Amino acid sequence: MEKFHNIGTSTDWIVMLVYFLLVMLFGSYFGRYNRSTQDFFFGGRRFSWWLIAFSIVATGVGSHSFIKYSAMGFQHGFSSSMTYMNDWFFIPFFLFGWLPIIVYTKIRS
């Protein structure tokens, strides 16, 4: 006879259920404001360029960055922390690559 492992307690399942219900309610409430796919993907063009810029930066610098660089520091020593400083390449790429696209599409639309 196989012995089954317990997968979470009842409290875990209740927390997950409440979380998913809240996410569904949140999505259905704010989903009323979407009239087309353009509203969904571009937010109805209601956001300023700097808010979109911060969103792109926040997407690129997530919690995985801190975990990744900590692991590299543990494996290779303190000198590997300089790899974080080498991310300077993305700032000009962002400023001269993505921002003009965002500003241009907002002006033209």
| Annotation, overall tally of beta strands | 0
Helix run count? 6
Q: From the structure provided, what is the oligomeric state, counting identical versus distinct chains?
A: single chain
Q: Please trace the helix and strand order, writing H or E for each element.
A: HHHHHH
Cα end-to-end separation: 66 Å
How many distinct folded domains? 1
Strand content: under 5%
> What's the overall average pLDDT, rounded?
76
Provide the structure class: mainly alpha
The percentage helix is over 70%
What characteristic shape results from the CA principal axes?
flat
Largest sheet: none
Low-confidence stretches: none
Task: Give short descriptive properties of this protein.
109 residues, mainly alpha, 6 helices, 0% strand, flat
Quick synopsis:
With 109 residues, the chain is mostly helical. The protein is built from six helices and no strands.
How would you characterize this protein structure?
This protein is mainly alpha-helical. The chain has one domain. The chain has 6 helices and no strands. The termini are far apart. The relative contact order is 0.07. The model has no long low-confidence stretch (mean pLDDT 76).
